[in-house]
Amino acid sequence: MFKSKGLFSSVRCPDETCSRLNCLFSHSANIPRPNLNIRVSPNKAAEAKPPNIVPAKRPSNSFAVDSSAASKRPVASAEPPLKLQKLGPAKRPAAVPTTFHAPSGEPILRLSAAASQVPVTVRQSMIKLLFDHFKVLYSDILQANPDLASDHTLRQEKEVYDTATKTTYRNAIISTIARLKKRTLPDSPSHDSVGTEGDVQEKKDKKAAISSIKLTRALLEPYILSEEEMKTWGYFTEVPQDPGGSNPSSEGKTAKCERCTQPFQVKRKDEADSCSFHWGKPFSRQIVGEKVRVFTCCSRPVSEGGGCSVGPHVFYESSLPDLHSRHSFSMLKEAQEDDADSALPVVALDCEMIYTTGGMRVARVSVVDGSGAEVFDEIVRMDDDVEVICYNTRFSGITEELYSKAVMQLSSIRESLDSLINRSTIIIGHALDNDLKTLRIVHHRCVDTALLPAFRHPQGPPYRRALRQLVKEHLGMTIQTGGATEGHSSVEDSKATLDLVRWFIGKQRAKRAPSANV
Taxonomically, which superkingdom (predicted)? Predict the structure, then answer.
């Protein structure tokens, strides 16, 4: 102990009961006790009022309400600033997709090294490996879809990064590459082998769910179009009385061009006059705050006139008398009650059309049964005296080489169809009225995917949503990607139409199913 200097020896101890042996204060009775009363002003007292103390466990209400009757306004609580609150575990940084590519086409990962748990150099080397294998996998479709390999490379790498750890990342990429090598080479962007591992698995799950639905007449009966609905949407419901087929071709006559709307003389392909036109449809879009009508094919305003493509003049007919005069309409054969009736109960049908001297005529017919199996696919040879003007390859997929293999005329095609379908068969199609018209069939048991409640155009008749859009939206598949050289496939479209109906039926079942919580 240090020796006391006696600085407080002249001050009386404030503790009257002090019994300390070495107290610093004096205990003499002659020394007056100090006055400890301290005067505090009212304002100071108000300032010295202790603050509200927030309990450790806050109530659910984040505002403290003044209990006085004069004020009921919420008062901000003494809650710590948001930046000081613990908001849970930090989210794992993810790869940021980029559109930047090396000269070789390899995608470049653009992100800070600090934002990645796996070194960026390691990830970039894995991206290169993935890209090389996606290029091999997509070798047959890469020319028409040049960005497909790079886009799927980045998405695949991100899938692995999001699920792997720093130590398992490299092995996970190598395992993914091994699975890529086992995939079947796709022949179209809608093939099951196209996509990341997640995409492929999702396709499998969707296909399994859709394939499990077996379409029957009883299941489709509620969705068959009524005669009134068929008339509203342009279906023909009656066969004309006259025999028809009296005017198969208009060669040498004057018609109005469907492409440029100008009158022209109908000529066969090798002699046809040239026409400048837009193969796309006009639609409205906002340009500098104004609504402008432009073409889907080239984005040029409709007001500019002219065209972006060149081809022969063609014409299209839609009235029942005109079509009947080219080739007569008829109904399918009657259903038989005995076992000899081999007609299918449900089919999906699609046709491809070309332009001829007899207007637009069917050039390919494809039919699949209720399970999606192909049962009929034929190229149609034009009737006698009917010559081709334009193969319309961009949409029909028909080329001069393919057409040269056609053997059966429409009358023979109809006879073949009679062995597969009859009047009791439910025919599924998209904008099915067009297919039936070009086949010259009148049928009353139709399910049209363009007219099912889930697929209808919001503006109603005569507008219909495109099959390609519906398939992409509801099935996650891409169809009709052939472009100007390959066009559409009626087999692909008929199967897609059937799957749309299965998807729709599955959704209807799910709505009617009782809740699991009940």
Answer: Eukaryota
